[in-house]
Amino acid sequence: EEAAEVLEGHILTSLSKYTEHLILIGDHEQLRPKPNLYELQAISGRGYDLDISMFERLVTRSGLQVSRLLTQHRMRPEVSSLIRPVYPDLHDAPRVFTYTHVPGMATDVFFFDHDHKEGGEDADGDGRSKYNTWEAQYAVG
């Protein structure tokens, strides 16, 4: 799981007196933990701030040394250019320039808007897992 998305308690309870190193991998600028109660979130002002992960706090507040990915090998350049404002030092590996174009499309990246609502809840009923039947049918034709 993404380190920035894991609740701090889940990390701390997995550590024992024999733990010598803890390696957290993720991106503190993307996903955050999702406490189920509003009162546990930073926006509530109650001080619990469980939606700020231990990983994010260590990276942004403690001055710990971190390493950051500087060359990406998965996204085509048209996609990676969309996140350059957030990651200005990110570069594209040479191989991403060789990806074939999306068959049948005028461009490799496009957006469309619609007014078909999402639905669904996951097994826990917390409403975080969504689906959109219209989008699925549109995608498969």
Key terms for this structure?
single chain, 141 residues, mainly alpha, two-stranded parallel ribbon, DNA2/NAM7-like, RNA helicase, P-loop_NTPase
Can you tell me about this structure?
The structure is a single chain. With 141 residues, this protein is mostly helical. It has three domains: 1-67, no CATH class; 68-108, no CATH class; 111-141, no CATH class. The chain has four helices and two strands, in the order H-H-E-H-E-H. It has helices at 8-12, 54-61, 77-83, 133-140; strands at residues 71-72, 91-92. It has a two-stranded parallel ribbon with strand order 1-2. Helix 3 links the parallel strand 1 and strand 2 (91-92). The longest helix is centred in the middle third of the chain and has 8 residues, at 54-61. The radius of gyration is 20 Å and the shape is extended. The two termini are 33 Å apart. The mean pLDDT is 88. It comes from Dunaliella tertiolecta (Green alga). One of its GO terms (biological process) is regulatory ncRNA-mediated heterochromatin formation.
